[in-house]
Design brief:
Helices cover about 35% and strands about 20% of the residues. The chain has about 290 residues and is α+β, with helices and mostly antiparallel strands. The chain folds into two domains: about 140 residues, Ribosomal Protein S5, domain 2, CATH 3.30.230; about 130 residues, GHMP kinase, C-terminal domain (Alpha-Beta Plaits), CATH 3.30.70.890. Strands 1, 2, 3, 4, 5 and 10 form a six-stranded antiparallel beta sheet that branches. A four-stranded antiparallel beta sheet has the order 7-8-6-9, covered by helices on one side.
Length: about 290
């Protein structure tokens, strides 16, 4: 169906979550985007994903439900650990709210979208931009310099967040929890102070990546090779399969090293992108990016 002329779009950035040790706490917005809008009426084909978002909106706002169609244009690949579902949930809720109330209520959007998403990291980072730490009464945010690059290796493989979460243990050893707390604290301090090099060596994780590595053959070797090529650290992006390395230099060498490691592990196609942080977060635009 041809997209109708729409009065506005909601631009939502892709995100990476966890950054290694910050499971369900860390999120970071990236300069890769989906533009989301809505129009009245029902979709030509059943779309339970967007229908759930519409129902959640009208229930949360205590309004009589109305059918709306979802429209998405953008470059955030689905099921790759880059927050695609978060862009759509957040973007559609924001589009509906702006259509009906002519303003955006970010705390309400974050809360409502998080209820749908099941975890706050991608949603919060996409809404606010920058690097966010979720927890307490409100999230904390730090803007990130464009000097800091995120070398992103995207295998041609889809993973399910539900499947990835099903692999996690119910309990973890005390020493593993302590190690993650130490590393997460070090990353937070480095990013909030803008002293990025001090995060080097703090990206190892013991809570989720070891259990999810079976979903992404070559994960550990790609991380190792990225660090050998000069990255401060590398990690599984969200539930994967995307692997991301953080660096101030040698982006091309890091990308090649990650790509070679994943090819050796059997991945035929691995796209490499060098991304920066998006510090603006969700915003209204008058026209969508060209597909």
């Amino acid at each position: 169906m041809k997209t109708p002329a729409l009065p506005f779009w909601i631009r939502v950035p892709a995100t990476t979550a966890n950054l290694g040790p910050g499971f369900d706490a860390f999120g970071l917005a990236l300069n890769l985007y989906n533009d989301v809008s809505v129009s009245p009426g029902r979709s030509a084909k059943p779309d339970p994903f967007s229908d759930e978002i519409v129902d959640a909106y009208f229930h949360a706002r205590q309004r009589a439900p109305q059918p709306y169609r979802l429209h998405v244009r953008g470059t955030v690949p689905p099921s790759r650990g880059l927050g695609s579902s978060a862009t759509i949930r957040l973007g559609m809720l924001a589009a509906l709210d702006y259509l009906h109330r002519r303003k955006l209520d970010l705390p309400w959007l974050i809360q409502t979208a998080t209820t749908l998403e099941g975890h706050p990291d991608n949603i919060t980072a996409a809404a606010l931009g920058g690097f966010v730490v979720c927890g307490g009464l409100r999230p904390a945010k730090a803007n990130i310099s464009t000097r800091l690059k995120f070398v992103t290796a995207i295998p041609k493989l889809q993973t399910s967040t539900k499947t990835a979460r099903s692999l996690l243990p119910r309990t973890v050893p005390f020493r593993d929890a302590v190690a993650n707390l130490q590393n997460a604290s070090r990353i937070t301090a480095a990013l909030f102070q803008g002293r990025y090099e001090e995060a080097r060596g703090a990206f190892s994780d013991h809570l989720h990546q070891p259990y999810r590595s079976t979903l992404v053959p070559g994960l550990n070797e790609a991380i190792l090779q990225a660090e050998k090529a000069g990255a401060m650290g590398a990690f599984l992006s969200g539930a994967g399969p995307t692997i991301m390395a953080m660096t101030l230099q040698s982006e091309k060498a890091i990308g090649r090293a990650m790509q070679k490691a994943l090819h050796r592990a059997g991945h035929r196609s691995v796209e490499i992108r060098v991304l920066s942080a998006d510090n603006r977060g969700l915003r209204i635009v008058r026209s969508a990016r060209k597909p």
